[in-house]
Each structure stands twice: as C-alpha cells, then as structure tokens.
Write a structure and sequence with these properties.
The complex is a heterodimer. Chain A is built from 13 helices and 15 strands. By secondary structure, chain A is an alpha/beta fold. In chain A, strands 1, 4, 5, 6, 7, 8, 11, 12, 13 and 14 form a ten-stranded mixed beta sheet that branches. In chain A, strands 3-2-15 form a three-stranded mixed beta sheet. In chain A, strand 4, helix 4 and strand 5 form a beta-alpha-beta unit. The longest helix of chain A is centred in the middle third of the chain and has 20 residues. By secondary structure, chain B is mostly beta strands. In chain B, 8% of the residues lie in helices and 37% in strands. The relative contact order of chain B is 0.22. The chains are: A alpha/beta, B mainly beta.
Chain lengths: 352, 147
C-alpha cells in the first residue's frame, strides 16, 4: 500500500472576489490586438477588492473547507499557506489564517513558496505527515492576488482567488489519493526578485521547456508508477495559466477535451496562480460521482509539477453543498472599469 | 492597498485579534443578551455571569448604514466607506462594522449579511496590517451554511 492510499481530501473550499475586469479593456488601453483575450481563451479576470489580500481570501476558502469537512479546527495539525503574494514579506500569513479559523496554538504553520506550485508541494507533504500519523489533519491553502506589470501580457490573466483543502485519513475523505509523482528542474521561465514589484518571464520560454515539459514529466511518472492510462480517468485538471495550455497538454497526454473542460475555471476568472489548478479540482469535486477518478497536475514556474491520481468516495454527495460552490462564486460578479481595478490592485495610488 | 498614515498601536490590535477574526462575543447567562465586542460585565443587566460565543457562522440583518465620503486620514483610498449596524439572526447581537463587496445603491434595510475577515486599515506600506470583521450580502441564500 502506498502512503498516498491512506490519505484523502476531507473538505474543500474556495473563494473568488466579486469584482471582474473585462480583458477587452486591457487590450484597448495597452494597444494589444483585440483578439488577444480570445487567443488566451480568457474573457474576464477576478480582481481582489481594496480590503482583500491573499490572507483574507485564504481565510474564507479555509472556512468553506471546514464547513465541508465538519471537523473541529483544533484537530488541524498544520496550516500550510501556498502563495506568491504574501501581504508580509516577513511574518507568516499562515498564523493569521490559523488564528482566524481557531487552529492555534498547537498547529504547525508556514508559508510555502514555489511560484504557482507552492500549495501543491504542501499537498505532497500533507500526504506524508498524515500517512505517518504525525498529524490528524492538515489545511493546505493556495491563495494569490497575482501581480503583473501593467501592459505586460501577464496582466490579461493575473487574477485573484483561493482554494483550501483539508487533508486527513482516507476513511473520512470525500476523495482519496491513489498515487502521486513530482517532476522538477531548475528552469528560469518566470521569477520575481526581492523588492521587485512585478514578476518577469522568459516569454516563449514559459511554454515548451516549462509548463509542457514538467506537467508531461510528472503525469508520465504517475502513469509508470500506477499503470494507469488516460482512459482510466474521468476528469483531468491541469494548472491553467490561460484557457488554451491545459487543453494542449491534455492532447499531448491523450486526454479528450471533455475530461478537461469541467475543471477549467481560468476562462471565467483568469489565472489565480496557487489556486489555479486547485480551484479546477474543487469544481470537479462539486460535479463528480463516487468512484470516479481525477487526474490533478498543478505546475509552478522555476519549475515543477506534481501529478495526483484521486478517487471520489461515497462521502462526496453529503459534503458538496455544505458550503458555497465554485459556481456560486462565479455567479457572484460585478464588472468594474480598468481604472477601478488599477486602484484596487495598487497600480495607481495617491502620493501621501 | 490603502495608503495613508493611520497609526496602529500594537498591543490593542493584538489583544482584540480573536474577536475581530472570529467574531467572538459574550452572552449574559442571566438576561441572555449577546454583546459584541465582548464585555466582562453585561451592559444590559450588570451581571458578571457571561460566556463566550462565536458568531462567525451566523447571518445578520442589515439595520442601518451610512456612506462616508469625508473619511478620516488613512482611509482615502476606501472612499466611499460604508459602515453599517447589523443584527445577528439568532443571537440578536448588534454589530457596528464596515460593509463590503457591495455598492451603496444595492443596500436594502433588512437584507441578509454574513461576516468576513478583511483588511480594515494598515499603517502605510511598511507598517502593520489590521484585519477585522466586515459584513457583506450573503453569497448564497439557500445553502446549509446557515446559523
């Protein structure tokens, strides 16, 4: 028995801010082709409000995960926060979340960094600490208010959302892990130096040598480890930096579009970085039936990917509606202007 | 991202964090009144027999609100700032708090609200961030997420 098989997702929860920006506005203001949003496969992106950040979004996602899990927050032995938009450079976001949900003082708590894959590394570590019996439950949060230099092509997709997973023993899980695999190399596709406000990226370098190579590497390693094939999966959820990459990597691996579309959330809200693949997983969990198998493959620049095989249990139905769903948050939207978005995200500010 | 030069004094900000994040209130064992912020003596009947309760999973009705255009220093980016009084549905606690995720013309007396944690203020770009409770219109009216 693999350690993964003893561990599962007990509860999940998401958060998407109410505010949306129509990407046509970015094309118009910065002189891109009007076709740019369509080529990226994204129409709108979610924008965190003036009183929101990765911590506030993470707290709401965590509370939703707790409502689904139905556990006492004091049983959470680790609060692990994956982000690349920490409100404090030094001072853990994880302790604020832990205090807000009532998991203090006997939980491990830290912030993880690996571009968009930080929370996924925390999922792999959670499998280890739960399977070993070191802790009963972990809370893993992927939350980002993604930054992009105004006028950079990244600005079309860099968005805000959060997803939280409570990971514990298989017996109490809505979906359990079967196996997992990782693929990492030192690849300079996207980075942000200390004190730089916005990330830089290697343009075309973000595709073939990064996203595609690492996801394919991780998924193939999972296939080798388990003997599973694309036909064995009902859904495939990949990191979704735009609306087209996930469909292309699916084709490369032999997954039809129908297995990918249900977990594609980026076309409606943009790329929420650490929440990008995980919010897709959340949407799939809200659609899935007991016994169905899900492939999950997050990716982070720098670069690395993890592949997980996840099987839905019969506890899924009783948990689905215990908290707002991804679709509830997708429906709650109000489109704002580029100028208001610029103020909310600190692109324009008053001189004090 | 609100700029400004609000001064955040660390000890009171730290001492009040639990009731700000989790909406912990006090309930009087004698007269049953729930008070927020929590108090060690019931303001209603003077009793010291009180217990702690968490209101974080309760919904609330909007009683009244005001839209502030002349904000105090440090809140300029948040104009217009909406502050309201809500009453929790079950425990009937009255809470004064910022209202968020809502436009002034969408507010209606009696509308159902729910508590969230938000950035209430911050000391410039380098100082502390003070998180606290705010209320927003309920996300879903029909769900098991009720009080």
């Amino acid at each position: 028995m693999l350690p993964e098989e003893r561990v599962g997702i007990v509860g999940w929860g998401v958060y998407i801010p109410r505010w949306r920006l129509n990407l046509k506005e970015i094309a118009e203001i910065w002189g891109f082709s009007p076709e740019q949003p369509r080529e990226l496969g994204v129409s709108e992106k979610s924008v965190a409000g003036i009183d929101e950040d990765a911590v506030t979004m993470g707290i709401e996602a965590a509370r939703n995960a707790l409502l689904r899990a139905g556990i006492n927050p004091r049983e959470i032995g680790a609060v692990w926060f994956g982000t690349e938009s920490k409100p404090y450079a030094v001072k853990p976001s994880a302790t604020i979340v832990a205090e807000a949900i009532g998991a203090t003082p006997h939980a491990m708590a830290t912030d993880w960094e690996f571009a968009c894959r930080a929370a996924s590394e925390a999922i792999r570590a959670s499998i280890g600490v739960v399977a070993s019996g070191l802790v009963k439950y972990t809370l893993v949060i992927g939350s980002d208010t993604a930054q992009a230099n105004p006028g950079d092509v990244l600005e079309f997709t860099a968005s805000s959302a959060a997803t939280a997973l409570i990971i514990g023993n298989r017996e109490n899980s809505a979906a359990y892990f079967e196996a997992s695999a990782t693929y990492i190399t030192d690849t300079p596709d996207f980075w942000r130096r200390d004190h730089s406000k916005y990330p830089l990226h290697g343009e075309a370098f973000t595709g073939e040598p990064s996203y595609f190579k690492h996801i394919v590497g991780a998924v193939k390693a999972l296939f080798e480890k388990t003997g599973l094939k694309p036909e064995d999966f009902d859904y495939a959820v990949f990191h979704q930096p735009n609306g087209t990459f996930p469909l292309r990597v699916a084709r490369m691996l032999g997954f039809p579009k129908e297995k990918v579309s249900p977990g594609l959330v980026t076309p409606y809200i943009g790329n929420s970085y650490n929440s990008s693949a995980l919010i897709g997983l959340a949407r799939v969990l809200e659609l899935a039936k007991p016994g169905q198998r899900i492939l999950l493959a997050p990716f982070g620049s720098g670069a690395g990917s993890d592949a997980y095989s996840i099987v839905v249990s019969d506890k899924i139905e009783e948990r689905k509606y215990n908290a707002p769903t991804v679709d509830d948050y997708l429906k709650r939207k109000h489109v704002i202007s580029y100028s208001l978005y610029a103020k909310y995200r600190g692109l324009i500010y008053r001189v004090e | 991202m609100s700029g400004g030069t609000v001064r955040i004094i660390i000890p009171p900000s730290w001492r009040t964090r639990i009731h700000r994040y989790r909406l912990t209130a006090t309930k009087c064992r004698k007269c049953g009144v729930t008070l927020y912020p929590p108090a060690s003596i019931c303001r209603h009947c003077g009793s010291r027999e009180i217990e702690q309760v968490e209101l974080v999973n309760e919904r609330a009705r909007l009683l009244t609100w005001t839209v502030i255009y002349n904000v105090m220093e440090g809140f300029e980016n948040r104009k217009p700032l909406i502050i309201g009084i809500v009453e929790t549905v079950e425990s009937k606690a009255r809470i004064l708090a910022p209202l968020t995720d809502v436009l002034p013309n969408e507010l209606r007396q009696g509308m159902l609200m729910e508590p969230v944690v938000r950035r209430v203020r911050e000391e410039g770009e380098a100082g502390l961030i003070h998180y606290g409770v705010a209320f927003r219109p309920v996300l879903v009216t029909e769900t098991s997420k009720t009080s």
